[in-house]
Amino acid sequence: MYDFVRELFPICRSITGDGVRRTLAIIKREIPDLHVDEVASGTQAFDWTVPNEWSIRGGYIEDSAGHRIVDFADNNLHIVGYSTPIDATMELNELQRHLHSLPDQPDAIPYVTSYYKPRWGFCLADRQRKSLKPGKYRVVIDSTLQAGHLSYADYVLPGESRDEVLISTYVCHPSMANNELSGPAVAVWLAKSLMSLTTRRLTYRFVFVPETIGSIVYLSRHLEYLQQHVIAGFVITCVGDDRGYSLMPSREGTTLADRVAEHVLQHHVDNFTKYSFLQRGSDERQYCSVGVDLPVTSIMRSKYAAYDEYHTSLDNMDLISPQGLSGAYRLYSLCLRILEANRCYRTSGPCEPQLGRRGLYPTLSTKDSAAQVRSMMNFLAYADGQRDLLAIAEIIGVPAVELIPLAEQLLQADVLVAVSR
Amino acid sequence: MYDFVRELFPICRSITGDGVRRTLAIIKREIPDLHVDEVASGTQAFDWTVPNEWSIRGGYIEDSAGHRIVDFADNNLHIVGYSTPIDATMELNELQRHLHSLPDQPDAIPYVTSYYKPRWGFCLADRQRKSLKPGKYRVVIDSTLQAGHLSYADYVLPGESRDEVLISTYVCHPSMANNELSGPAVAVWLAKSLMSLTTRRLTYRFVFVPETIGSIVYLSRHLEYLQQHVIAGFVITCVGDDRGYSLMPSREGTTLADRVAEHVLQHHVDNFTKYSFLQRGSDERQYCSVGVDLPVTSIMRSKYAAYDEYHTSLDNMDLISPQGLSGAYRLYSLCLRILEANRCYRTSGPCEPQLGRRGLYPTLSTKDSAAQVRSMMNFLAYADGQRDLLAIAEIIGVPAVELIPLAEQLLQADVLVAVSR
Amino acid sequence: MYDFVRELFPICRSITGDGVRRTLAIIKREIPDLHVDEVASGTQAFDWTVPNEWSIRGGYIEDSAGHRIVDFADNNLHIVGYSTPIDATMELNELQRHLHSLPDQPDAIPYVTSYYKPRWGFCLADRQRKSLKPGKYRVVIDSTLQAGHLSYADYVLPGESRDEVLISTYVCHPSMANNELSGPAVAVWLAKSLMSLTTRRLTYRFVFVPETIGSIVYLSRHLEYLQQHVIAGFVITCVGDDRGYSLMPSREGTTLADRVAEHVLQHHVDNFTKYSFLQRGSDERQYCSVGVDLPVTSIMRSKYAAYDEYHTSLDNMDLISPQGLSGAYRLYSLCLRILEANRCYRTSGPCEPQLGRRGLYPTLSTKDSAAQVRSMMNFLAYADGQRDLLAIAEIIGVPAVELIPLAEQLLQADVLVAVSR
Q: Best exposed site among B239, C44, C80, C285 by fewest CB in 10 Å?
């Protein structure tokens, strides 16, 4: 996954343009059945209109001595996203109105965009900005902003049921590692893992979109189907660094996606930060909006807007690590494994079954009883046909994954039945 | 309001009689459309019967030297409310059976009544009582207890909707400031403020009654209408002193009146005491009784029966203050302002609206976002057509009054609709 | 009760056999209308089959010098329950495979059974076991394991209503005091107390069964009737020692049995341990199983599996006491008394009734009011026809038993009606 991020890192993505196309092409190399689609600028999607396509070829600031002191070729964050073209010479004080830097982080280049209002600008380290001397500067931005397309992709991996798990991630940031490319990397590796399974109960839908406008476009085309079939979904973002784990709940906080994500975090990592939906900031803004109401959460490592390097040039390959990515991958894998087994179960008859004659219960009664037997009896005690595997695991206080083989044993012993759901 | 209380203070009110009539006349001077009514003694009201009317003209205790040592003319608390007439001379030890004082508060004259059992008595400071010497005393009470009327008044200020806010207060205590006259003062000033508005969504009903028997009589005549139309109500009492704020919830504690009162206290004062309904003691006893079940609470300052001066001569003009009254007035005004705007709202479409093109969202995306924009986005996130303004304010964690102008902006921008309620 | 336990203590009970029959005969002496029944070995009960009947006449281990070093005649725990017959001589190391002892409790003889797999064995103190010298030992168990019957008994004491309280206890352990005989003793004395009442609103069902298989058999014969009529039930077990009190909730923890048991513990003992249903271990395993779902809890003193002497020879007459038994008896009596009165009540009309003219309210209004009057007014405030006596007591914060005479007064005063339930 880390190498995959490294390959994607240099590409200058935005919400439209060739950067997205090249990124989707690399994803398609890993997921051959990926379906890539485009919608034309001007297309209406709910309250929104698909904007013009932005093409950026280069740009720089040259000082009066002819030195390129800020250059897109060095770092694609240097140019404000969706900058209109310009080629002009101006005094420093006029140029200042088009510069963006972070006084509190003097060495970081900020990431700034202006998708829906035409303007141009440069981003640079505050330390460099402060060193600029009065005088004339030439500014060049070689970009085009005209009717084109917005690109996105999806991949549906069918299972026995049409009940779906939605996995959405975004592909619209330039060179940024944790808050962007960690998401597509983990999503692609989850897809590859699921593709290798011989049977799947659930259907899985992977969505790769530009953030906000992309998910709105996607929802405008699939809303009714998704509302009918998605039982749980995840926006995978910010899953690359080594720091703690965190959870973004859905709007109501009680969906299956909330339950499985929180259960996995509670049982499989030492601690995590549970954010409020008020602190949301990615595509759950759309997936959980009123009228969409999909059950979508995010398991993250360092959450967007909650770490210093966020939306700056410091969110780079040094910030993330193979361990960071694989830790998040493991938690999502656990979520999917539990969702696969998460049916409601019911005991076959009234009273406890006689597990002893089936070799599942000790034949000698002494003062002690094994933890495994306790879990099995407790599972049966709460298998009422109403509670799903997760609910029972929560009551018993054991990881749901540990109940999966027990449920299998009890099903085979005919003392348990799976209630369809 | 303080001057208004000062004007009403000297009048000797009881649950019937000219004291109530004079008080209602002064209120009518402020609220010209006040509707004053009377019901005859002997009238049945649910389980109760309107008692005889009590007229008190004077009374005193005279010692053997002919000095009037206790005199109604000095303080109308000196005579037990509803005392039967007497003119007799007796030994101190016989008189003692008719005297009431408070050993723990030696300088306070207690307030004592006997509405439903004929008796006579005097109240005096315990210090004075202890100084009485054996000997003969003449006791005179010049009162009449005979068929007459019980007086009360109401005032209905109509709005666009027949949904009503009920404001009830009582007018049956003699010279007592916090636990009586602060209530009518704040109620009258709220009525005057509402009268001055050009439009009102809600209808407001102000009720001025003798406590207990008066609210029972009022309910017996209006119960069905009130049950159909009152959406929130307040018993305004004990709102005059400078000490802390407090809340008396309704019986179930979950009505709109509970929600708005608690929200206002939580957001607009530093701290407050939330009492249990088990500590009730005013007309919420009737309004919240089984079979009446109106949504009625009280925001108070020092609650009846919870401060030392309660029901004594120390509950006087020194105990209350203009600041005390205006503090309570401000909180009730906030409640009414929120209730006016407290509809359910729903976003116009799925997904977030594009606020940027309406000038409601910054066009430049940087790391920061303003609190105002956050509140607006959060309001939209929870505007699901089920939650009212108060519920959304509680989730977002901001004062509901701050959401009122935001809701107005969003309604005008056509991204929000008000769901009738 | 203590003497009754002493009489039953020496009998060697198991889940079948003459020990149970003799025990039930002694119970029938106290409850003449006890109905004793038997079911044949091989009978199917849900997932279970009634096992062969076990008859034990004696058994011992004899050392090479001819001394009986372990003898059933000394303590009936010495032989593993349901041991098959044997008469053989063997080396110590072979014998060891059939010995059971507790290294952590070197002086305690453990209680071990093997109901559903044929084997034989001896239990002895670990100190004695360690003293055994290599050599030959003769082992004799004079038992029979063959088709016979399983015995159990019940007793139904009818009341005005067919709503039932179920009281179940077990009679299948050999000489053990707290975890066995305390239960039948308290159950029998509760039955005797109820028999002496001239009127009872509720019907009471007492069940005496071998644990697990006995309750399963009983449920297989009465399930539908019990599900229709039992409103609360108790498994009475471990109610004999002097240590703290404890509560085993039902599976869902919200039944009437849970509510009354927890209320009584909260108001009538200093403190208690509330266990989780995950720590269950007696017949609530069956009564609260999915598909049975009866409202059954246990008030206990030291809970099975939670005290050192449990299932050893130390659970004897010294562990329990008359005080221990009577303390538990008192709490169950309180539960039954509350259940008898636990109807829903409703005030006769809107608003508070005028209690003064009925002599139930002070005629003189001063600053104070009595606790009794407060409870009465609070009871009326929450008597909404939906809440039962227990629910009102919980809200008011007073013991439910104190509300019983108040409710009676209010019913007689015609200000309250009992809503049938």
A: C44
Q: Do C277 and A381 touch (CB under 8 A)?
A: yes
Is C38 within 8 Å of chain B by CB? Answer: no
Contacts of C401 (CB under 8 A, 6+ apart): C334, C337, C338
- Rounded to whole angstroms, how far apart are CA atoms A344 and A109? 52
Interface check for A278 against chain B (CB to CB < 8 A): the answer is yes
Q: Per-residue confidence at B53, pLDDT binned at 50, 70, 90?
A: very high
pLDDT tens-digit series, residues B308-331: 999 999 999 999 999 999 999 999
Is residue C61 within a helix (H) or strand (E), and if so which, with residue range? Answer: strand C53-62
Counting Cβ atoms within 10 Å, is residue A14 exposed (0-12), middle (13-18) or buried (19+)? buried
B305: left (phi over 0), alpha (psi -120 to 50) or beta: left
pLDDT at B29 over 80: yes
Query: Which one, of B216, B272, B208, B207, lies nearest residue B244 by Cα?
Result: B272
Q: Which residue has the tokens 């169950």?
A: C332
Of B374, B373, B393, B372, the closest CA to residue B383 belongs to B393
In the DSSP assignment, the letter for residue B119 is: B
Helix, strand and coil in chain A, % to nearest 5: 35, 25, 40
Residue of B nearest to C356 (CA): B116
Residues 6+ apart with CB under 8 A from C213: C15, C45, C48, C50, C51, C115, C150
Q: Is A333 exposed, middle or buried (CB count within 10 Å of its CB: 0-12, 13-18, 19+)?
A: middle
Helices B371-382, B389-396: inter-axial angle, 10-degree rounding? 130
CB atoms C278 and A384 under 8 Å:
no
Partner-chain contact B115 C397, CB within 8 Å: no
A302 touches chain C (CB under 8 A): no
* A401 CB-near residues (< 8 Å, 6+ apart): A334, A337, A338
Cβ(A383)–Cβ(A397) under 8 Å? Answer: no
Q: Are C163 and C226 in contact (CB under 8 A)?
A: no
Contacts of B195 (CB under 8 A, 6+ apart): B31, B157
Indicate whether this complex's ipTM tops 0.90.
yes
- Chain C residues whose beta carbon lies within 8 Å of the beta carbon of residue B114: 363-365
Taking contacts as CB-CB distances below 8 angstroms, the residues of chain B near A113 are 364-365
Which residues are within 8 A (CB) of C29 and not within 5 positions of it... i.e. 6 or more apart? none
Between chains, do B292 and C349 touch, taking CB under 8 Å as contact? no
Span B65-122, pLDDT tens digits: 999 999 999 999 999 999 999 999 999 999 999 999 999 999 999 999 999 999 999 9
Q: Do A354 and C47 touch (CB under 8 A)?
A: yes
Q: Decide if A278 and B397 are in contact by the 8 Å CB cutoff.
A: yes
Which of C45, C278, C290 is closest, CB to CB, to A347? C290
Residue B74, SS3? Answer: coil
Residue A310: list chain B partners with CB under 8 A. Answer: 367
Query: CB–CB of A378 and C305 under 8 A?
Result: no
Residues of chain C with pLDDT under 70: 366-369, 421
- A219 interface with B at CB cutoff 8 Å: yes
Q: In chain C, what is the straight-line distance between the N-terminal and C-terminal CA atoms, in Å? A: 34
Residues composing chain A:
421
Residues from chain A contacting residue C48 (CB–CB below 8 Å): 351, 354
Rounded to the nearest angstrom, the minimum Cα separation between B367 and chain A is 7
Number of H helices, E strands in chain B: 12, 19
User: Of C393, C388, C389, whose CA–CA distance to C375 is shortest?
Assistant: C393
Instruction: Tell if the CB–CB gap between C364 and B285 is shorter than 8 Å.
Output: no
